Amino acid sequence: MLLVANTSEFIDKEFSLLCYLVAPLYIRRVSCNTCVAERMPLRRITLSGRLSAKESQEVWKTVARGLICMVLDIAITLAISISLFYMFAGYVVSPYERPLPCNDDSIKMPFKENTIRMKHLLVVALGTPFFIICFVEALVYRHSQGPNKLANYFVTSTLLYLKYELTFALCVFLMEYLKCTFGRLRPHFIAACQPDWSRMDCTEKESIPASQTYCMNDVRRVRTARTSFPSGHTAAAFHVLLFLGLYLTRMARITGLPSLYKTRNVLLTIFSIWTAFTAITRVTDYWHYPTDVLGGIALAAVCVLPTFGWQWRTHEEVYGFRQLWGERPHFE
After folding, report:
1. Any idea where the domains of the chain sit in the sequence?
2. Which of 57, 97, 180, 222 keeps 20 to 30 A from 195, CA to CA?
3. pLDDT tens for each residue of 211-264
4. 45 C-beta neighbours (distance < 10 Å), count
């Protein structure tokens, strides 16, 4: 009973902190037992929003202050998100252990290394949006008029990326929760588990209970082999694509900048090909079933669309937020 109480208290604390971080993205007020979060714009709770809003007379001071606040805000958010995730995955959730089916050929595929490795996926999913946001915002500020343009550029770029970063973190948390809840066996489960058949009998049974399934491989690989649905790689890849699709398309339409149209066309073509390749290789590498990939796409949409689906639709939403003014395209 004491263990259950401590676990419940730990979950409440973790969920409260997650709500505090994510609340500014979605809601005005959340009530979830221990979590009550009022809407507080990121501008008010970040170093960039509070310290970099005013522009110094010396350009180098404005740039230095903007860069320092940007790096600190991003690093702090990443550190908190990673720490919470490891605690969440290590102490709060664990995969549902399904019985081992005896006559299911779909879990007997060979084990193959990932074509798209996790480190490469994270570089693309977290790294490239940062540089794209900085580049696009630089184009917008360069071709617009307004006060404190340089200082506001750093603030806007940082806050937008932090919003993307927090949405990505939420997607990862939901992904891990769903993976552990469903506990679907991967196509290479037998190869990853390496069952000890001398202690298991599958001749006259449809399945073997998880408590009687003996794997000779390391525990970490077996745990991973029990988390097929949904596909995390696919969710991350489509998370990037959906965000960039909304951001680049709407920014190009509202600003009317030819350079933004060209940037959008090139980047969306590249990311569409990369995303499709990532999704396909999850199946051909025998890490996922096609339905896992579809689940990853749905998860990305659930995280991205409520957050960014209603942004950058009008001239005021683009220029007003940035304290700029620019010409209205005739087709707005």
Report:
1. 99-320
2. 180
3. 999 999 999 999 999 999 999 999 999 999 999 999 999 999 999 999 999 999
4. 14
Amino acid at 127: G
**DSSP for 34-72, written as a single string:** TEEEE---HHHHSHHHHHSSSPPSSHHHHHHHHHHHHHH
User: In b/e form, how buried is each residue of 258-284, taking b as 16+ CB within 10 angstroms?
Assistant: eebbebbeebeeebeebbeebbebbbe
What's the pLDDT tens digit per position in 121-142?
999 999 999 999 999 999 999 9
Determine phi and psi for 100, rounding to 5 degrees.
-85, 110
Q: Find the helix or strand (DSSP H, E) in which 227 lies.
A: none
The two tokens of residue 273 are: 């090909």
Residue with tokens 């290590």: 90
Q: Are 184 and 228 in contact (CB under 8 A)?
A: yes
Structure tokens at 306: 């409520």
Spatial neighbors of 215 by CB under 8 A, at least 6 apart, are 193, 194, 195, 196, 222
Measured distance CA(140)–CA(187) in Å, rounded: 47
Token pair for 112: 């193959």
Rounded distance between C-alpha atoms, residue 128 and residue 283, angstroms? 25
- Which residue from 314, 128, 109 is spatially nearest to 193, judged by alpha carbons? 109
Determine how many CB atoms are found less than 10 A away from the CB of residue 11: 15
pTM of the model: 0.85
User: Which residues of the chain fall below pLDDT 50?
Assistant: 1-40, 330-332
Cis peptide upstream of residue 230 (ω within 30 degrees of 0)? yes
Q: What is the pLDDT at residue 148?
A: 83
Percent of the chain with pLDDT over 70: 84
